[in-house]
Amino acid sequence: MREQKEQEKQNELLRVVAEQNHERLIEYDVKEDRAVVYAIENDRFEVLFDIEDYVKKNHYGSVFIDPEDKKVFRRAMHACLQKEGTVTVDVRYCEKENQPEWYRFYLVSIAEEDGKTDRMVGRFCCVQQEKAITERMRRRAEIDVLTNVYNHKAFEEYCAKELAECTTNALFVMLDIDDFKMINDTQGHAVGDMVLSQTGSILSEVTGDRGIVGRLGGDEFAVFASGFQNSVEMEEFCVSLRENLKKIIFDMEYSVSIGAAKLDGRRISFPDFYYEADRAVYAAKRGGKNRIVFYDQIKENQEPETADPVEPILAQGNEKSMLRQLRTCMEALGREGIGDALMQTFEALRQYFDADCVVLAYAKEGGIRYVEECHRDTAQMMARLVTEEIESGDAEGVIQEIGQLGDVVIPDIKSLRESHPVIYEYLAELRAWSAAGISLYTGDHLLGILMVLNPHRHLEEADVLSMLGTTLAARIELRNLQEQQEYDRTHDKLTNLWNREGLSVMARTGEDNMFCSLGVITTDVIHLSEINKQFGYISGNRRLMEVADLLKSMFPNYRIYRYDEDEMLVLCINIKRQEMEQQVENLQKRLAGLGFGVAMGYSWSAHPQTRSQIAEAEVLMSNDKLKLMHGTTVMKRMEQSVIDEINDLMERGRYLVYLQPKVDIHTGRTEGAEALIRQLDDELGIVGTGDVYSGAGTLQSGAYD
Q: Are 121 and 11 in contact (CB under 8 A)?
């Protein structure tokens, strides 16, 4: 009786919750193989679906679930019935004559006393609006705005997923619009955009449900399609793409070069499939306009893989051609402005080798995390990946490995799989199928590497790169030296903060005229000169470093200057007034906690005037300084700080005693000795008498006989 009442109470609670949230209920009985779907209408359970032989007749979702989501719902039910627990799944639910809408199912399995699952119950509610919002956000991230097809990254992700699950013949097609640069130059970019937009629309229309379309960058598109019966259908599909694209009409002839790779039942990785299509479209472009080339057509003409996949660069090309190109690059490198000189050199190399990208990765301040690159329009994805990998430091290991190879040519990266797997995976991720590169050394230290990615011609003349190596390394070292000199000129050596010259540079450029608001904070270490005089420069420098480190920690995103011996300055550019006031309050508390006196002033304005605001902050700082210096408060705090530090040094054994003999000049006999104390610093070792922290050079403890 009690169990029946409890069950009725639970049913009533479930009914109320479901009705209030406009939810549906589902129940599946394993023994009876029966599924029932309910709705709550006017406080009553209304049966919407009552399906017998639900599993036996494979009705999994096919009655009230959209057929496209049938597999997903089946897997969710299986997972729920495997063991007692809960499963959540989003599928499209169909009710009566209504259009399918997205619903979220919360399924719960219920087990008998023996632990065997005998029943599954659940509730589900409409999430159509949530899905619509999610879909809009996804499309913004994945869809190319101009062409309304997938962007490069999203296309690759979907292709890799489709390829992993594909069980039928599939086709990877790459398309390159012929003479697209000429279209932009002669017809204007508006016409160029129209051509790109219509290309995306026609490719999507022809592909339909057979696959997906993407824009790889610039005028390059790609299609991944499956479900073909044979090679003839694949070839007809490519012809259909080309012929339908001819519908695009403007004042020039439209044509497209098409390269394709067939799956033909093979198991192949996505990078290798991409590689085959890329090689095929390049062969189509080289063969003339409006051509279709399949990878298996050019496969037979490829040279066999060499035993050593990495070939040393040799002087085996056309000598006159190499010398002309070398002269072009040397003239570019000789120009003033190293940044522009390097970019002109790299662009000259990219055009000479007809390469997708030329990359220089080089070291500065230790790690190889600096990059210069130039690329063709269709290699934007490659350039972005190269830059991100190098600047984040993720590519440093593979760069070191490439650097150990020296000056080399890699005709086909697939041959690197066994011998150099790390390099292979890196280049495959970039979609670089071939490369030529040199290692730049300064002594035994690897300065960087120069790589030409996907060179399509003059590969036999890669010795041009080796000829440039020494000059290029010298230019990089020169730039590093110039940048270091400029850094030293504008930064304080002790604190690594900007110095007064750095502040003057900003004032001369008029950069502060572009600020929306400006907060200025000034600090002054009180009696720094007295501290240096009485207790040594080491003590004074330590106090300066404490203040500098405090400012760095509290203002990591703003400019900090040491613009006088004992004064520091923080420029809080575009800071809001409320945030400025809070930071000032926090800094006052932190400065008060130091073991020595530091005065502070500040200013904020929505109409920035750097010089006048600094002057205003200095006036407030002077007033604060007078308050702190009233009486002997500061000196007492300073003296106590010195005493505490001396006690700490003594406890840690940082004072050493030396005995200096006292000799009678008449007899030559040692009559006694004078005890001298020296301080042992953790960083500087034994401190000289002019810098010793604890007093006026030496502390004599007397003499003994």
A: no
**Do residues 212 and 200 make contact, with C-beta atoms less than 8 angstroms apart?**
no
Query: Is the confidence at residue 163, as pLDDT, over 50?
Result: yes
The rounded distance, in Å, linking the Cα atoms of 350 and 49 is: 66
Percent of the chain with pLDDT over 70: 88
Strands (E) in 153-306, as ranges, are: 169-177, 211-217, 220-228, 256-262, 292-294
* Distance between start and end Cα atoms, the chain: 108
* pLDDT at residue 684 greater than cutoff 60: yes
Q: Between the CA of residue 536 and those of 314, 514, 548, 647, 675, what are the distances in Å?
A: 63, 43, 19, 17, 21
Indicate if the pLDDT at residue 705 is higher than 80: no
Could you read off the pLDDT of 552-576 as tens digits, one per residue? 999 998 999 998 888 999 999 999 9
DSSP calls for 112-157: -TTS-EEEEEEEEEE-HHHHHHHHHHHHHHHB-TTT-SB-HHHHHH
Q: Give the number of other CB atoms < 10 A from CB of residue 374.
A: 21
d(CA 674, CA 659): 6
Residue 509 has pLDDT above 50, yes or no: yes
Three-state DSSP class for 694? Answer: coil
Average pLDDT, the chain: 83
pLDDT at residue 304 in the model: 47
Cα 369 from chain centroid?
Answer: 12
Written as one letter, the residue type at 226 is: S
The DSSP-derived string for 422-450 is: HHHHHHHHHT---EEEEEEEETTEEEEEE
**Would you say 359 and 378 are in contact if contact means Cβ atoms under 8 Å apart?**
no
Q: What is the CA radius of gyration of the chain?
A: 38
Q: How far is CA 410 from CA 350, 357, 569, in A?
A: 16, 15, 54
- Residues 15-65 pLDDT 10s: 544 445 568 889 998 888 898 998 877 767 788 888 888 888 777 666 888
- Name the token pair of 495: 């604190």
pLDDT band at 311 (very low <50, low <70, confident <90, very high): confident
Reference 175, options 251, 238, 252, 235; nearest CA is 238
Question: CA-CA distance, 285 to 258, in Å (whole number)?
Answer: 8
> What is the Cα–Cα distance from 469 to 403, expressed in whole angstroms?
13
DSSP secondary structure, 178-211, as one string: TTHHHHHHHH-HHHHHHHHHHHHHHHHHHHGGGE
Tokens 């159509």 found at: 128
